[in-house]
């Protein structure tokens, strides 16, 4: 999965099946990475995750929230201690950006996930791999639901605009 191809596909078209495939890839990779991070994270990585989470909580713009969210997830991949996960991270960055862009249509979608991000960080800090995995699965499920809701709304609006012509 070439990150540039992912970015290009998302820029050209918000194909529902492609975006859902990206969510699916996240569900395959990120819960396992969170569990590994709970085993291998070092204090410096925990501080970076915590800082990113706090920036997410106070973010005033979509760009600042997305930047902090990406850092949070990238640090989890780094903390998992597997160099190949880091390489997959840039493609996952594109998935995160796409899902954030789509879910911005839902009020409070970012706020809704702050607590679950906090649970992920706590599980990693407390060396609880199963809780970290389950919490990440929950986060990605919520995000996927937000993506589906946003895409459904977009389809309804487009249908209404088409019917009005």
DSSP strand count: 0
Helix content: over 70%
Number of helices: 7
What oligomeric state is this?
A: single chain
Helix/strand/pairing class, anyone? mainly alpha
The poorly predicted ranges are none
Overall average pLDDT: 82
Distance between the termini: 39 Å
Question: Mind telling me the CATH superfamily name?
Answer: GntR ligand-binding domain-like
- Over the alpha carbons, how many angstroms does the gyration radius reach? 16 Å
H/E series, N to C? HHHHHHH
CATH architecture: Up-down Bundle
- CATH fold-level assignment: Four Helix Bundle (Hemerythrin (Met), subunit A)
**CATH class wording:** Mainly Alpha
Instruction: Give the overall shape, derived from the CA principal axes.
Output: globular
Counting structural domains, the number is 1
The proportion of residues in beta strands is under 5%
**Biggest beta sheet summary:** none
Tag the structure with descriptive keywords.
transcription regulation, FCD domain-containing protein, 165 residues, GntR_C, Four Helix Bundle (Hemerythrin (Met), subunit A), globular, transcription
Could you describe the 3D structure shown?
The chain is mainly alpha-helical and 165 residues long. The protein contains 7 helices and no strands. It has one domain: Four Helix Bundle (Hemerythrin (Met), subunit A). 87% of the residues lie in helices and 0% in strands. The chain starts with a helix and ends with a helix. The model has no long low-confidence stretch (mean pLDDT 82). InterPro entries: GntR_C, TF_FadR/GntR_C.
